[in-house]
Amino acid sequence: MGEVYRAHDEKLGRDVAVKILREPSLADPTRRARFQREARVLAALNDPRIATVYDVEEGGGGEAIIMEFVEGQTLAERLSGTAAAGSHGLPLKEVVYIARQIVEGLDAAHDKGIVHRDLKPANIKITPDGTVKILDFGLAKSTVISDASDDVATAGATGADAIVGTAGYMSPEQARGQPVDKRTDIWAFGCVLYEMLTGLTAFQRDALTDTLAAIVTQEPNWTALPDGTPASMRRLLRRCLDKHSKRRLRDIGDAQIDLDEALSTDLSSQLHSVPAVSRSRWVMAMAVTIAAVLGALVGVAAWSLWRVDSEMPLYRLEVPTAPMLDSMAPFSFALAPDGRHVVFVAPGQQRLQLWIRPLDQTNAQPLSGTEGAILPFWSPDSRSVAFFADGLLKRLDLGGGRPQILANARNPMGGTWNQKDLIVFAPNAANTLLAVAAKGGTPTPATRLMSGERSHRFPWFLPDGQRFLFVVQIGDSAVEGVYLGSLDAPGAHRRLLVSDSLAVYAPPGFILTVRGGTLLAVPFDETRGDVSGESIPIAQDVSWHPEMRAVLSVSNTGVVAHRLGKSVTRSRHIVWADRRGKIDTTRSSPGNFPQLARNGMVAGVRAIQGNFDIFVTSRDATTPFTFGPAIDIYPIWLPDASRIIFSSDRNGVFNLFEKPTNMGTDERIVWESPDNKFPQDTSPDGRVLLYVNQDATTDDDLWALPLEGERKPFSILQTAAAEDQAQFSPDGMWIAYRSNESGRREIYVRPFPGPGSQKRVSEGGGIQPRWRSDGKELFYIRSDNQLIAVPIHLSSETKTLEAGKQTPLFEVRLGNPHNAQFGYDVAADGQSFIIDIAQGDPTLLPLTIVQNWKNALKK
User: Fold this and answer.
1) DSSP of 177-228
2) Cβ-based burial of 209 (10 A; exposed 0-12, middle 13-18, buried ≥19)
3) Can you list the alpha helix ranges (DSSP code H) found in 218-340?
4) Comparing 796 with 374, which gets the higher pLDDT?
5) Annotated catalytic sites, by residue?
6) Is the pLDDT assigned to residue 824 strictly greater than 90?
């Protein structure tokens, strides 16, 4: 119906898709009406599974819809590629992964009263990171948005050519020209699901009339379904493809149940046995993990020392693991340098924790004291494991004892350990690398940011223990990539590779990295410290994480581990929920870091085309608040909602800015200094700002800044621990905050500005304290993800606090539990909450172990 171009929005610095309607289509009132309605329909939808419309333009002899540009291939192209490779259909796990996202998108549209009416593989896009987007709402019907063209039959409105292109996915009532509702999309979904499983269309015939006849009178070829298709999947197909619409699946959201059952059935069928346990769902998930690992590795005990046989071909072993809601956890694994063990994160009794498995045995064991762990890495002698948990870098000696705290690391991005017992690590997502003794101590800078760089991440020592690889991941595109650094020259590093992931050194003489989902081996001259040849592919479809990109591990014996398959990109959404956890589906918007103003408006952050900007959402609309290529985060409302204070790195470090909410342009700096700073809260009278200051050793300290008169900040808490997430009490006399001084994150309350002692309020760990507007209740999120309400009695005269019985309200799954600065906020009456939640499937990606990959390079 229109021409679609890729274009670049110079104002906002992003690529967009421009759909243009020109003559003679422009002169056709029906086509023009449908074109305009498509824009209105897309504008009414706000869901990560549906392409977003940005604007509508007229001029130059045409009309244009400016919308989100979606990279990747269509599902039709994906199926075509599978057929060309000789396969019939997609693997069941991929089918479920794609189908669940289609269901989410359709469910969002149906909730808005919108029926797509043209769902087919060609209108389903799969991005490189695996996100599914539903496109082309040109034929959509809306019960809310309507015009005269809705009454025109599909054939009359679009012509015979369009019927030929979509007839194979029409419902019987659609083929007969009868009125349709959301059940016609459910039928089309069934057709798409059938095609993904079999590689065949359900009803498409050579002639249009034969196709329509098959839709109305015939059944799909059920015998074409793969033999291992679970019963729940077969049941779902028959319910979607029932020719009588009243007997069809009533709501597309109900398909999730059968899809989940199909996936669990398929996973169970891969296991030799699953221990019968009933203590908790996490224990069951762990049983699945262990059984899957054991089942996959039985019979390969000859790999006990993981020696590379020069005569053996390349060998890959796929190890299924349990689904995990935390998107970072599946990417937290490490092979020991001696190749004898693998350590990985998986569900434990209550929280995720580290598990260790000797590769020449058939059992895995949990490592006590590692609850909440992510991103493990080994000591060079393979006797100790370092990891990050509760905002800290910790070390666990496998010979016995409890973990030792080495340093603060609020939002870690990897670490590495050399033979001199020195650890280089990335303490947060927006800073340089630090070095600290493996026994603990004061960290010192290991790198310095150069021009255009904003974040150094994922170091990996070379064998000399002096030089290391690391990634510049956030910064100008001209500087991003893999770099070589050295402990004796923190300010002198140089780029080796352009890559979209971390890099590891594989002895002797290779750097392994990932580019575009392909695992590459790059010849590396260790003496000169430079790449020395062309990249050689080892594996395809390596999984990808939005913050860590691809994650790899390699032993000194040359064995490589990575995740394989389409990565799950779990979108961030701001939703409203009551005290029982029931979500109001009519009040939802993409974004994170939600902050609620007294007038009910919400400030949040969105990442669009890799750029972080602040948005303001009312009940009716979401409006961009900041613009440009800088990272703008952590919005804080002034009490009268006249201004928002936020943090931005537009000047090289994160400084504090403020801007009026009347969308004026007089943005100005509140406070700047050489350290990163992040706003936390303002006092009830709007005169004082609490903020976190990160000094050169990553200690997060609480400071206060007067917003009137002479703006001279003063320290509130400046200790060896990390203190953040501070909130003023409604009377301004107290602050609640988070600290890891006990070895894990807990919630404390202390008088402001002092003097007076602090009191711990949380039980069992806690993050993100929030006050009710009358100060009589404090909320926080416990380490088991439960939102907790605590009655509070404050005495400003005696400077005392009494906390009542803790009441769990409901489970909260934050978008990023490891860096959740502002994951939720509380309405004034304490009866409802806005929450930054992660939307998407639990991540289910097999761990792939590759042996003898170097021998394949010789061929």
Assistant:
1) T----HHHHHHHHHHHHHHHHHSS-SS--SSHHHHHHHHHH----GGGS-TT
2) exposed
3) 231-240, 255-269, 281-297
4) 374
5) 118
6) no
Asked if 13 and 611 touch (Cβ cutoff 8 Å), the reply is yes
CB 144 within 8 A of CB 184: no
Taking the C-alpha atoms of residue 743 and residue 407, their distance in angstroms, rounded to an integer, is: 11
Cβ contacts of residue 545 below 8 Å, gap of 6+?
327, 328, 331, 551, 567
Looking at residue 339, its pLDDT comes to 86
Residue 55: beta bridge partners?
Answer: 66
Query: What is d(CA 505, CA 443) in angstroms, rounded to the nearest whole number?
Result: 24
CATH 2.120.10.30 residue ranges of the chain are 270-569, 571-839
What is the fold of 270-569?
Neuraminidase (2.120.10)
Q: How far apart are CA 475 and CA 26, in angstroms?
A: 43
3-state secondary structure of 697: coil
Give the CATH H-level superfamily of domain 74-267: Transferase(Phosphotransferase) domain 1 (1.10.510.10)
> What pLDDT digit, counting tens, does each position of 671-719 carry?
999 888 999 999 999 999 999 998 755 568 999 999 988 889 999 998 8
Indicate whether 186 pLDDT > 90.
yes
More confident site: 832 or 572 = 832
Q: Which amino acid is at 757?
A: S
Instruction: Lowest mean pLDDT of 273-282, 421-430, 450-459, 716-725, name the range.
Output: 273-282
Mean model confidence pLDDT for the chain: 81
Q: Dihedral angle at the C-alpha atoms of 315, 87, 253, 622, nearest 10 degrees?
A: 80
For the residues of 141-180, what is the DSSP string, one character each? EESSS--GGGGS-HHHHH-HHHHHHHGGG--HHHHTT---
The structure tokens listed for 513 are 């990295």
Rounded CA-CA distance 41/45 in Å is 7
Q: Residue 500: pLDDT band by 50, 70, 90 thresholds?
A: low
52 burial via Cβ count (<10 Å: 0-12, 13-18, 19+): middle
CATH of segment(s) 571-839: 2.120.10.30
Q: Where in the sequence of the chain do the CATH 1.10.510.10 domains occur?
A: 74-267
Token pair 């690529």 in the structure block, residue: 15
